[in-house]
Design goal:
CATH topology of the largest domain: Growth Hormone, Chain: A
CATH superfamily of the largest domain: MFS general substrate transporter like domains
Distance between the termini: 39 Å
Structural class: mainly alpha
Mean pLDDT: 82
Largest sheet: none
Helix content: over 70%
Number of helices: 17
CATH architecture of the largest domain: Up-down Bundle
CATH class of the largest domain: Mainly Alpha
Low-confidence stretches: 1-13, 441-449
Shape: globular
Number of domains: 2
Order of helices and strands: HHHHHHHHHHHHHHHHH
Strand content: under 5%
Length: about 450
Amino acid sequence: MSDTATQDETVSAGKGALLVLFLVTMIDMIGFGIVIPFLTYLVEDLAASEGIAEVGLWVGLLMTSYSAAQFLFSPFWGSVSDRIGRRPVLMVGLVGNTVFFAMFGLANTLLIALAARFMAGVFNGNLAVARAYIGDVSTPSQLTTRMGIIGAAFGLGFTIGPFIGGELSNPAGRWDFFVDTIFETYPYLLPCIAAGGLSLVSLVFAYFKLPESLPKSKRSTADSVKWTSRIGNSIKQSYSMLNKGSISIIIWVTMLFIFGFTIMHAVFILYTGMAVDLGGLGYNEAQNGRIFAIIGIAGILTQGVLIGPLSRRFGPAKLLPVSCIVTGLGLVLIPYTKADWALVQLFLVVVLIAVGNGIFQPTSSSLLTTVAKREGVNLGVVMGAQESVSSFARIIGPLTGGLVWTFTVSRSWPLDYHTAFHLCGIMMLCAAILSVKVSRFADDHLEES
């Protein structure tokens, strides 16, 4: 009787906790996206003061450090939450966000900025814990809908993050109120404080509204939750899935797509912020933030409005290569934008990118689920392998973009500042060609269901 009561209480409490979980996930993506509009400018300022010329390399390093920390520490936080419960782990993550956002905004050397960004990724590695919480408090019939909250928070966070980062950067240069204040000395502190403030608000909500979802009777012992073992198992499972027929094709396509897409994260603002006479657009932080907000909004609309009708009309197997081509076309066209027509041209380009990416994400997951079920492979293992491979691509993508930019930006066409974007297109083309090999049985299966 007590077990039943506890279960009922946990499921009921889960409804009240959904807002907190939504905020935690959204802030995770805000933490990733908030630096995108101003990261290049921060690196340029710090590099100039330290006499460092490899700006592109450092931009890639700072972006990579965040994703690498998340990849390494997600298993750790998952292990800890299995042992002590979900609630304290989620709250610790929110405290860490606040501290290391502020540290990043106050960074006066590239090494401090790198350390702050890495630590922010460490404490933002608890997304898996949020998913586990939903699993704890949801019945099978509720699970799919409640997991959708995570996806919605992802899209909204990636839209809000760059917008906040752009609009609040360099406030002393835009508003007299901030002149002769700490925000003039540290021009990128204000957006970091805003992100930290959101974490504090979520922390208050979590304290009062987030009950523990994992009863003590269901918690793991310390001996069974070694996070190093989880990382090792994750790598082994991912490797095995990369050699498993149709499943491996879809996972390889996902890795190539995300690799090409995240190269853009490192070089987009290196290009848009470059002087017009050098081929760039001369954009500032706010303009860049608005562009990424457009990408986020278009992506939300694609997944919320377009993907259903498109899937029913064409089927995932046909949409997958098309999404790669559409995204790749947008990525390749970025550096060919002309400053005089930038508003129109860049808008069309980023919409292509957002629509292609918005179609790819749910389509690849649907195909992977269908193939895994047909082949009788454990769905959790398959999805875990896909996430691990995706995380790896997010780590090497920005670093590759930064390196390619550093070694080509001052050269002559075609090996100049266009090169990194050409590389994005090549990755997308490879993904599209490989995705054609995906068995068409998935379309028939989904249509019947």
